[in-house]
Amino acid sequence: MADKPVSELSFEEAMAALETVVGQLERGDVALEASIALYERGAALKAHCAGLLAKAEEKVELIRAQEGRAVGTTPAEGL
Amino acid sequence: MDLLDDTPEPRSNQPEFTVSELSGAVKRVIEGEFGLVRVRGEVGRVSRPASGHLYYDLKDDRSVIAAITWKGQAGKLAVMPEEGMEVIATGRMTTFPGQSKYQLIIEDLAPAGAGALMAMLEKRRAALNAEGLFDPARKKPIPYLPQVIGVVTSPSGAVIRDILHRLRDRFPRHVLIWPVPVQGEKCAPEVAAAIRGFNALEPGGPIARPDVIIVARGGGSLEDLWGFNEEIVVRAAAASRIPLISAVGHETDTTLIDHAADRRAPTPTAAAEMAVPVRLELLATLDSLQARLMQGVGRGVMLRGQRLRDLARALPRPEALTQSATQRLDTAASRLGGALSLAVVRKHRSFDALAAKMQPNALQTMLARRGAALQDQSTRAKALLDRRLDRARDRLQSLSARLAPTLTNLAARSARDNTRQREALEKLAQRLDAAPSLRLKSLSERLDRLDRMRQTLGHHETLKRGFAVVYADGQVVTSKAAAEKSSHLEIEFQDGRLSLSPRPPRKAKDAPEQGSLF
């Protein structure tokens, strides 16, 4: 997971990775250079998660179907 | 006119109907009054002629109603009528004027009573289960944070509102509603189509593909929920590659789609909770992680800085390491020259003192002094020795002078003692010889005396005078009674004992009398 670019992680993966990074840093047994790299990764993960959380917009649409296939959407109102 | 007037006018204002008119009127009344009815009854005789229409009876214990399902409807019935089946029929009443009949046109037919439905449901469940459609291994995990949520439900009503409301509270998302009827005969095929339709959407296509699907419906009767028990729906749910949450009916209702779904929610609201996490909680968690991240890295740096400072403090300056040694060297070096000459002077001085004393006359003086002392001591020793010798000799002489008379005295005294003791011995020997014979004589005299006395006192002397002693069984007898009791008598005379035969007197007396008896 450490090899996967942060931007491609799902929220859950990013959250779990962040927990791991924090845990490693808190244990304090990481070399200084590595701890700085870890911190940078942690910050990136946090930003990624925060970004996903910020995109919390409600959008409700009704499917228009024809013969069992979705052919378009109509914004739902009043729901 | 009179005639006509006289004639009573029978119900002149009552219209007259033709048969068809009346039949038509009845038909209108019946159809108007019973345009939509639900009837519960038992299916009677069923016939299905080549026309494809279904003719059957609905009956209870007293009445019968003829029923027809037209060919077009017959294929859509949930269950086919079978004789004896308890059903609830939905349809309208009409008449058949050709036969003066009224009949029920049935459009929908459902098994009546939970028992019948449940039995059918169980049978279907078992069949689908045997196919492995409900296998837990098929179930997919629900994504933690889906971006798009597809909801298959009715777009009107409380269910979609509940779901959207809860999603809004927890984590507002992009929601796609696929509108379907949630009861009735169109329910099952449309729900199945909706599930398949969502799955058919391409990722990244013009319509977003959902990350999770919720199939939801509010509570209702078993019949209301029946569409979600249909095989077509169950199969669509099982085949869905998008994780699917079912929320059909109330918590206590279980429909077959619940078995095929990846998760089953007791209510639509609960389905929304399963679909998304709580955004505020996640934000809080993220904040705390961020804080811990900062702290963690900060602490790492701080601890290292502290450690560095501590070590640096403990590290001494290089000049400090040599300073005291240099100083000691300097001090020692400065004292080295003086100390050497001082030591030489001191040694020289003590040597001089000693050397001054080392002269020949010193030795001679000492020798003379020792010689004089020696001579003096030997003179005194000789005198002392002579005196002790004289004293010892004198003592010897006086002791030897006293020795001779004492020895003479001792010899005389011991000779005297010897004589006296020999005399005493002789006297004792004489007494020893005399003593036993004297004693023997006196004893034999005493014995003679005693024997004489015994003879006078014993009964033998008495026997000589004519007395006799009687013994019975070895014991002396002194009475007649004792003698009679004994078995053996003896009489002792002076010259011996006479034995008597046992009980002679009594036996002698009794024998003749007894003998005469024989």
UniProtKB/TrEMBL annotation, chain A:
Q: What is the organism lineage in this UniProt record?
A: Bacteria, Pseudomonadati, Pseudomonadota, Alphaproteobacteria, Rhodobacterales
Q: Which InterPro entries match?
A: Exonuc_VII_S, Exonuc_VII_ssu_sf
Catalysed reactions listed for this entry: Exonucleolytic cleavage in either 5'- to 3'- or 3'- to 5'-direction to yield nucleoside 5'-phosphates
Keywords from the UniProt entry: Cytoplasm, Exonuclease, Hydrolase, Nuclease
Q: Which organism is it from?
A: Neogemmobacter tilapiae
Record HAMAP family: Exonuc_7_S
Which top-level group of life is the source organism from? Bacteria
Places the protein is found? Cytoplasm
Provide a Gene Ontology MF annotation, just one. Answer: exodeoxyribonuclease VII activity
Function of this protein? Bidirectionally degrades single-stranded DNA into large acid-insoluble oligonucleotides, which are then degraded further into small acid-soluble oligonucleotides.
Family named by the database record: Belongs to the XseB family.
Subunit: Heterooligomer composed of large and small subunits.
Query: Where the protein is mainly located, per its record?
Result: cytoplasm
Which gene does this sequence derive from?
xseB
Name of this chain's protein? Exodeoxyribonuclease 7 small subunit
What EC identifiers does the entry list?
3.1.11.6
Q: Cellular component GO terms, alphabetically?
A: cytosol; exodeoxyribonuclease VII complex
UniProtKB/TrEMBL annotation, chain B:
A single cellular component GO annotation: exodeoxyribonuclease VII complex
Q: Where is this region: Disordered?
A: 493-518
Q: Which reaction does it catalyse?
A: Exonucleolytic cleavage in either 5'- to 3'- or 3'- to 5'-direction to yield nucleoside 5'-phosphates
Using the record's annotation, list all stretches that form the Exonuclease VII large subunit C-terminal domain: 133-404, 413-499
Q: Does the keyword Hydrolase apply?
A: yes
The enzyme's E.C. designation: 3.1.11.6
Coiled-coil spans in chain: 382-435
Q: Which UniProt keywords apply?
A: Coiled coil, Cytoplasm, Exonuclease, Hydrolase, Nuclease
As for subcellular location, the record says: Cytoplasm
Q: Could you tell me one molecular function GO term of this UniProt entry?
A: exodeoxyribonuclease VII activity
Enzyme superclass (EC): hydrolase
| Task performed by this protein | Bidirectionally degrades single-stranded DNA into large acid-insoluble oligonucleotides, which are then degraded further into small acid-soluble oligonucleotides.
UniProt similarity note: Belongs to the XseA family.
Q: What's the subunit arrangement here? A: Heterooligomer composed of large and small subunits.
Give the protein name, as stated in the record. Answer: Exodeoxyribonuclease 7 large subunit
Gene transcribed to yield this protein: xseA
